[in-house]
From TrEMBL:
Belongs to the peptidase S9A family. InterPro entries: AB_hydrolase_fold (IPR029058), Pept_S9A_N (IPR023302), Peptidase_S9_cat (IPR001375), Peptidase_S9A (IPR002470), Serine_Peptidase_S9A (IPR051543). GO terms for molecular function: serine-type endopeptidase activity. One of its GO terms (biological process) is proteolysis. Residues 29-428 form the Peptidase S9A N-terminal domain. This is Proline-specific endopeptidase.
């Protein structure tokens, strides 16, 4: 009976869009309400759309297809424009291209693309860039027959003869590890399923360590050891994480001497290690886990180097002998500073490179081991991003780093730390008539509700900017301490060249301004993320960077939660909102420990089994706070196979919004039935969704070409 009921709902919705006297005026699907009572702490919530969480139910699938058909019908008048946008986006991309080779263990590794191929070739050359090319992974061939295909990781054995690689063909981030001979290209029979994709070789050229996912929650929770040529079902369990608020992983130190197993939660970490040449030895604990103690490790010569928050709010760099690894032995290398956040580090034979963040911008600090002489790199722009790139070897004075800004295409730069000479090895080529001098980037500071200054990075085309009249595309993330660093996008030119100002609000919940910036936007301070964003939007209008009636907001995943929250809090501020794979059903998801990622995120959002956190989450959860009021025009996207934010969250949210909102603005949802959290896997294919998003907002401001 239930199946027939749901099926009739979906069919009715489809018929409504294709039949009747006004086929040009599509009617949205109307989701059936089946009340589900959810009670905790003496509080009962009624969820009328709880039934949508049955991924395998044909009726649910039909309902999602009905939503897609409605979106297609509503956007049909923009189809030609979407095609034009897509064509111009990919026309700017250099089709035949190659990455900068990186040397590792005697070989130069790189990837390259050919023509219209959606996927890259992974290649290497032995000893010299003039040597003969060896294609180690022909991904265009491997991807044939799949609607989605992704290489998770690849790793070469110490003797350079065997390639281990992982692939995902469903978009659930459950990777299968395979092995290939680099001598004769034969594929080994060994296949390891349901892994995170990471692969760590021991030094014996036959043993690999890998991490598997929990069959229900998909959390990485076991590390196993596989010996090539032996039955996978007999692989030895070397570590199992019993605490479901932690996830585990494995890697090899840069020195290639140690294999490391890490277990981390949001606010705690624990590592284990063995000699890479002794894969059958017992792992030793580096420093036992403690609440609120975070650290990560690498190895150089006789010491382990530790990035940690131990007695260091903004993190410090410490070291300890390999024979004495617990925290009482740690010695300070770079101290904590209140105004500088230490984000990462890279060790070379003669130099230490430290990634830092100050005033919201990344810095690269270089220190010579011999005399501690140090200097910073100068990047010369008001707003930018710079990062330590791939540096697999110790014995070099050349640091490879990456650089980009809102007007400077992504660049790979080699910097000689001894001579202080920079060499641009590659800069992203923008095909066509792009001229960076046509665009202006700025960094401004909005004032939040509590007086905090919030940085905003923005860019516009100079000849299209007229104060107070431009449409604005404002985005943010603001969770997990993940900083929204600026970057160049050739795709973004399709907005800028049509008069949009494009901006990123560096709201609290990220880590742009240091550790306190993160802590002021999480748990019981989460609402700062949302009010910061609204303040940034208001400030940009007040300062003339946007027309009051042309403000558009975009956010994805936890940034989609932000979109849902601002729609409830200040719907009047926005002409339109795009929420990509949005985390909007916060309370129900965080109460369901069978859902991937839930238990590992209690330190981020709080555990709603605690009434204080339940009440606070309930006060901002987008799904729970939908009201009978006017909302902006909205486009929501999701993927059926999303393992991070389940498709039913945005589907339920849209159904509830459609039932309750009092306006006539478009409310659309696009469900990708083939992909997951990251969208399409092909390098061009993914831009179809971007073209849809751009067409949606451009249409709302009357730009149709």
């Amino acid at each position: 009976m239930k199946f027939k009921l749901f099926f009739s709902i979906a069919v009715t919705a489809l018929l409504a869009m294709s039949c009747g006297p006004k086929a040009t005026t599509p009617k949205p699907p109307v989701a059936k309400k089946i009340a589900k009572e959810l009670t905790i702490h003496g509080d009962t919530r009624i969820d009328n759309y709880y039934w949508m969480n049955q991924r395998e139910d044909t009726a649910v699938i039909n309902y999602l297809k009905a939503e897609n058909s409605y979106t297609d019908a509503m956007m049909k008048h923009t189809e030609e424009f979407q095609t034009k946008l897509f064509d111009e986006m990919i026309a700017r991309i250099k089709k035949t291209d190659e990455s900068v080779p990186a040397k590792s263990n005697g070989f130069y590794y790189y990837s390259r693309t050919e023509g219209d191929a959606e996927y890259s070739l992974y290649c290497r050359k032995e000893g010299s860039l003039d040597a003969e090319e060896q294609i180690i992974l022909n991904v265009p061939e491997m991807a044939k027959g799949y609607s989605f295909f992704s290489i998770g990781d690849y790793s070469v054995s110490e003797n350079n003869k065997i390639l281990a690689y992982s692939e995902d063909t469903l978009s659930r981030r459950r990777y299968t590890i395979k092995f290939k001979s680099l001598v004769d290209d034969k594929i080994y029979a060994d296949e390891i399923v349901n892994t995170t994709g990471g692969i760590t070789w021991a030094s014996d050229n036959k043993t690999v360590f890998y991490t598997v996912k929990h069959p229900e929650t998909l959390l990485p929770y076991k590390v196993l050891k596989h010996v090539l040529g032996t039955p996978v079902e007999k692989d030895e369990l070397v570590y199992e994480e019993k605490d479901n608020t932690f996830y585990t992983f494995c890697y090899k130190t840069k020195s290639r001497k140690y294999i490391i197993i890490g277990s981390t939660s949001t606010l705690s970490a624990e590592y284990r290690y063995i000699d890479a040449s002794k894969p059958n030895s017992e792992f030793s604990i580096f420093q036992p886990r403690e609440k609120d103690l975070e650290y990560s490790i690498d190895h150089f010569k006789g010491d382990f180097y530790i990035r940690t928050n131990y007695q260091a709010k903004n993190f410090s760099l410490m070291k300890t002998p390999v024979t004495k690894t617990t925290k009482e032995n740690w010695m300070e290398v770079i101290p904590n500073r209140d105004d500088v956040y230490l984000s990462n580090f890279e060790i070379f034979e003669n130099y230490l490179v430290v990634g830092e963040r100050k005033n919201g911008l990344n810095q690269l600090r270089i220190r010579r081991w011999a005399d501690n002489e140090e200097h910073y790199l100068d990047f010369g722009e008001e707003t930018y991003d710079a990062w330590i790139s791939t540096n697999p070897e110790f014995e070099t004075d050349v640091l490879r780093y990456g650089y980009t800004s809102l007007t400077t295409p992504s660049s790979t730069i080699d910097y000689n730390m001894a001579t202080k000479v920079k060499t641009v090895m590659k800069q992203q080529e923008v095909v066509g008539d792009f001229d960076k001098s046509n665009y202006e980037a700025k960094r401004i500071w909005a004032t939040a509700e509590d007086g905090t200054k919030v940085p905003v990075s923005l860019v516009y085309r100079k000849d299209k900017f007229k104060k107070g009249t431009n449409p604005l595309w404002l985005s943010a993330y603001g969770s997990y301490g993940s900083s929204s660093d600026v970057y160049f996008s050739s795709v973004r030119l399709s907005l800028l060249d049509r008069g949009f100002v494009v901006a990123t609000a560096h709201v609290r919940g990220g880590q742009e301004m240091g550790r306190y910036w993160y802590e002021d936007g999480k748990l019981l301070k989460k609402k700062n993320t949302f009010t910061d964003f609204n303040s940034c939007a208001e400030y940009m209008v007040a300062e003339g960077y946007a027309a009051k009636d042309k403000v558009f907001a975009w956010g994805g995943s936890a940034g989609g939660l932000l979109m849902g929250a601002i729609c409830n809090m200040r719907p009047d501020l926005y002409r339109g909102v795009i929420a990509a794979v949005p985390f909007v059903d916060v309370v129900t998801t965080m109460l369901d420990e069978s859902i991937p990622l839930t238990t590992g995120e209690f330190d981020e959002w709080g555990n709603p089994k605690n009434k204080e956190y339940y009440d606070y989450m309930l006060s901002y959860s987008p799904y729970d706070n939908v009201e009978a009021e006017d909302y902006p025009a909205m486009l929501v996207t999701t993927g059926l196979h999303d393992s991070q934010v389940q498709y039913w969250e945005p589907a339920k949210w849209v159904a509830k919004l459609r039932d309750m909102k009092t306006d006539h603005n478009p409310l659309l949802i696009k469900i990708n039935m083939d992909f997951g959290h990251g969208g399409a896997s092909g390098r061009f294919e993914r831009y179809h969704e971007v073209a849809l998003e751009y067409a949606f907002v451009l249409d709302l401001v009357g730009i149709t070409k």
